[in-house]
Amino acid sequence: MAEPPPPPPPPSNIDIWAIRSECNRIIGADSRHFYALIFLFLSPISSTLTYYQIFPIKTLTPSLLYTLTISVLSLFAVGSVTYSVFHGFHRRPIKLSSAIKAAFSSFFPLLSTWLVTQLIISGIGLILGELDIFFCYRRG
């Protein structure tokens, strides 16, 4: 008869300090890389947020362009930072060019995931809104 497989190892004790030290190790390994990613993707987002708080948008076209720009830059930032952190966690060298390539290659999967989640959330909101309207008219 075959032996049963060995039991899985017990879960390791992970505390907040271990996670923080791992984050410091990843960022400290190549901090200029993460600063470059912040400059490329997150600085335009924060500067446009500041600009549009000072000068509010009054028409539809700039508002849609603003929303599209923020969405695209956010998805690029998520793709490149995730790639960089993954490779930093596994102690692999990180190159800025490969992180930017990863941002472009992961854009459409992230976009489709974002669209599906927005559809699900909107569907739940519509169903709850319809139920609320139904029960309000039923009571009153």
Task: Summarize, please.
The protein has 140 residues and is mainly α.
Q: What keywords describe this structure?
A:
single chain, mainly alpha, 0% strand, transmembrane
Shape: flat
List how many beta strands DSSP finds.
0
Poorly predicted parts: none
The average pLDDT value, as a whole number, equals 85
Q: Please give the alpha-carbon distance between the first and last residues.
A: 71 Å
Strand content: under 5%
Transmembrane segments: 34-52, 64-86, 107-128
Keywords: Membrane, Transmembrane, Transmembrane helix
What does this structure look like?
- This protein is an all-alpha fold and 140 residues long.
- 79% of the residues lie in helices and 0% in strands.
- The chain has helices spanning 16-29, 31-54, 60-89, 96-105, 107-139.
- The longest helix has 33 residues, at 107-139.
- The N and C termini lie far apart (71 Å).
- The relative contact order is 0.09.
- Keywords: Membrane, Transmembrane, Transmembrane helix.
- The chain crosses the membrane at residues 34-52, 64-86, 107-128.
Chain-wise SSE layout:
Layout: H1 16-29, H2 31-54, H3 60-89, H4 96-105, H5 107-139
Keywords: Membrane, Transmembrane, Transmembrane helix
Transmembrane segments: 34-52, 64-86, 107-128
